Amino acid sequence: MRDAIKNCLSIIASLGAESRFACCEGAHVHYACAGDGDVLVMLHGFGAWAYGWRNQIAALRDKFRVIAVDLKGFGLSTRSLRTSYSVEAHAKAVMCILEREGIDRATVVGNSFGGTVALTMALMSRERVNALILLGTPFRIKLPKLPPMLFTPLIGPMLAKRRLFNECGVKDTMRYNYANQSIITEESIKAYLAPLHIRGTANAWVKMLRQINGFDMSHRLPQIGQPSLLIWGEFDKTVPVPVGEELCGRLQNACLKVLRNAGHAPHEECPELVNKLICEFIATT
């Protein structure tokens, strides 16, 4: 486990970012910091970690203060069965980081599950969350019918490890989520595999899936008035474009950009275009 943690810290350092930790919501939450200026808080999707924002950290740190958070149970954040993994608990943990860092206003960028957390943060504080950038973000979470054994203590985590926590599992997940397959490299596979070797990951994920399944914030979306940029990949199979269209229609102040030849992670698949859209959006908010 120590080697896995050391490897993850080395990856973050290679991105030109500083690793920090904060005790929030019953866990030590890791976040990578780089740059100065207006604050961009970046939240990854389920199964990912701060590394997923590598292209944004590199390109945007000269213009913004970039904070890429490892949500509880992912990356270098600690795994504990004594903490809550609900969407609200994740949002409170990120808000705790903003408070500790003395950040009064931030644009929150979220991909997939991280976007769901960002939407929840926007409801918690309009003052602190002044704008949203959401990529492939669900506002309802309904997991496909899964074998009951997956949620059984000991057996569930063992199955997750066997099927997902290896090079083939990571590669298969990337192939499903990325329309642009060229970004699947040995380096990226190893980087996504690294935190999966930290003890307790599978147990945390199984508990998290139980707690977030059935989450639905559709009735609260009209309460979100912050300017919101929605970025979707046209070939997103995990959260298809119609979800983005519905989300755009339910928010008070949102626009939707659908990117060609991209899947569920546009910020990784076409980073230059996404970075351009981020900069243009922030300049107008």
Provide a quick synopsis of the model:
The protein has 285 residues and is of the alpha/beta class. 40% of the residues lie in helices and 18% in strands. The protein has helices at 2-14, 54-60, 87-100, 113-124, 155-164, 167-177, 186-193, 201-212, 241-250, 266-269, 271-283, and strands at residues 18-24, 27-34, 39-43, 65-69, 106-111, 129-135, 228-233, 254-259.
Spatial separation of the terminal alpha carbons? 43 Å
- Coarse structural class: alpha/beta
> Rg to the nearest angstrom?
17 Å
**Tally of strands:** 8
- Major sheet details: 8 strands, mixed
Low-confidence stretches are none
- Spatial order of the strands in the main sheet? 1-2-4-3-5-6-7-8
CATH class: Alpha Beta
From the spread of the alpha carbons, the general shape counts as globular
Task: Explain this structure.
The chain is of the alpha/beta class and about 280 residues long. The protein has one domain (about 1-285): Rossmann fold, CATH 3.40.50. About 40% of the residues lie in helices and about 20% in strands. It has 11 helices and 8 strands. It has helices spanning about 1-15, 55-60, 85-100, 115-125, 155-165, 165-175, 185-195, 200-210, 240-250, 265-270, 270-285, and strands spanning about 20-25, 25-35, 40-45, 65-70, 105-110, 130-135, 230-235, 255-260. It has an 8-stranded mixed beta sheet, with helices on both faces. A hairpin with a 2-residue loop joins strand 1 (about 20-25) and strand 2 (about 25-35). Helix 2 (about 55-60) crosses helix 11 and helix 3 packs across helix 4. The chain is globular and about 45 Å long. The mean pLDDT is about 95.
